Give the backbone structure.
Amino acid sequence: MKKFSFNKQSFLILLLPLGIILSQISTIFPNYIETFYSSFLYKIIANILSLITGFLPFSLAEIIIVSFSAFILWYVLKTIFNLFKGKNRRLEISKNFILNILAITGLVYFSFQLLWGFNYQRLTLDKVFQLNVRTSSSKELADLCKVLINNSNTIRARIKENQYGVMELPYNKKHILKTAQLGYDNASIKYPKLKGNYGTPKGILLSIPMCYTGITGFYFPFTNEANINMAEPDSFLPFTTAHEMAHQRGFAKEDEANYIAYIACIKHPDINFQYSGVLSALSYSFNALRKSDTEKYNALISTCSMAVLNDLKYNQDFWNQYSGPIEKINDKINDTYLKSQNQGLGTKSYGAMVDLLLAEYRK
């Protein structure tokens, strides 16, 4: 790697502590972040990036990630080779390597915060959507599950399935990506914050290898692309797509993106989206109920139709076959990342959407 000039390198390195400081300061002013960043500046940034990348039929994010990963690997191997080759210059080589890595980290981190990261500090969704989130009883949770079970059973009876009794989309999976916007168009009538079209979600070409990480999709702030693992079971694919589109709209927290995905799915004219949204909400609610009241959970899960149980079991079996060390490492990295963005529960915050579902149920 070509050496940076001292001034340029120092400037890029200083972006790292500057980004961290600004991120911490922003936690004190959620109202200002909501008004001036999330609802104004970020919208401009997202729309500009969408104009640049939205028309591409492939994921630019996937290309960037693979290329950047290959570049970093090459640079590390080259540095190791130079350390063995230039024994008299090891201190200088090591110093340049560390400074260059810090400079790259500073640039990437600061850009991440500016392009999207400050959305973690915006007002919480219960305030934005005016939902009364509070501690709920296990009875309220069980009642919510009953509603979701009834909806799941009713909708599932009209859904196409394969020879094994598992949900099967009646069209190519790419149709999900092309039509997901319709759910947001309808949801934005009640929730104006969800307005906007930020480009069609992109299917990942390396979806099968991606399964080993346990990742169903990801949002890439540098291109404003919602990237979807197309190998995921059909029953949860629409929900995942809507989830990543929630991130496009500036809702960074995972539990909030899950709730928004649920809303966008049940408001969608396609029954397959509706089922995916309700089934996902039921899955999260069941997980919460199982931890709080096992007896009620066992009683209620028996009221699910065999078709719904087939879909839930198939999804579990699908991900179990890819479970391993890569998934565990990625889960640890993701957990650390979420906590660094002031999501104190880490990966456990994925289940916090149940609080929002309960607030909506009470409302």
Observations:
- The beta strands are 202-203, 217-220, 225-228.
- Residues 346-350 have pLDDT under 50 and may be disordered.
